[in-house]
Amino acid sequence: MRTTHRATSRALITTAATAAVMSVAVATGPAIASAHVHVDADGASPGSTSVLTFRVPGESETGSLTTQFSVTLPNVPSARTEVMPGWTARLDRDAAAGTVRSVTWTAAPSVGISSDQFALFHVSVTLPNQPTVTLPATQTYSDGTVVRWDQPPLPGGGEPEHPAPELTLSGPPAGGDDDHGQPMAPTATATAEPGATAQPGAAAAAGPDDTARWLAGGALVLAAVGFVVALTGRRRT
């Protein structure tokens, strides 16, 4: 009988520990991805002129320096780089179309990004009138290694080994006109009144976070119950 109680207690403690671990995993979400080339722009909207910031980490396994970084632009009508000490920038222009196709930064001798550093590259561009912009990049190291950041997301939404930097544009297109040339209605933020019924869209948007909180809470409750039951079984024996 005592052996049965001990086995039951061990099983309950294992279940409680597993539930606690699951609750932490649900609450914290997926682990942070490894360092990749990333692009960001504050307040960027379709058709606007914005400053793109590329965060470029050194990832050489041999300790080589990043000495060149190039970004393919979606044939933007204008582009302008920021002065960056130790680096020179070159714009590749399409004279016939009057657009800029790419920008390349090259480090001066004895300058580069080591494996324990990162650098920020800034370029001001006029963005295309679309919701997202993909900006394939190429990173070149001092030992001749070339890494192309140009892979699309994997089927199912997974991240490839060298994902292409992608920028999501928010807000209305520049000019504020819709497809019919009419001014676009301002975006309103709905505020729920006491007793009001939530709209389906709002409920759907909040669903994943609420589900994660309920799962995390349920797992913690299960862990607590298992622990109490296990202690009770030990005392009875």
TrEMBL record:
Transmembrane segments: 214-233
Domain called YncI copper-binding: residue spans: 36-169
Superkingdom: Bacteria
Gene3D superfamilies (alphabetical): Uncharacterised protein YcnI-like PF07987, DUF1775
Composition bias type Low complexity, residue spans: 182-209
Region (Disordered), start-end ranges: 144-209
Signal peptide region: 1-27
Key words, A-Z: Membrane, Signal, Transmembrane, Transmembrane helix
Pfam family, one: DUF1775
InterPro entries xrefs: YcnI-copper_dom, YcnI-like_sf
Keyword Protein transport recorded: no
CDD domains xrefs: YcnI_like (cd08545)
Protein name: YcnI family protein
Organism: Mycobacterium yunnanensis
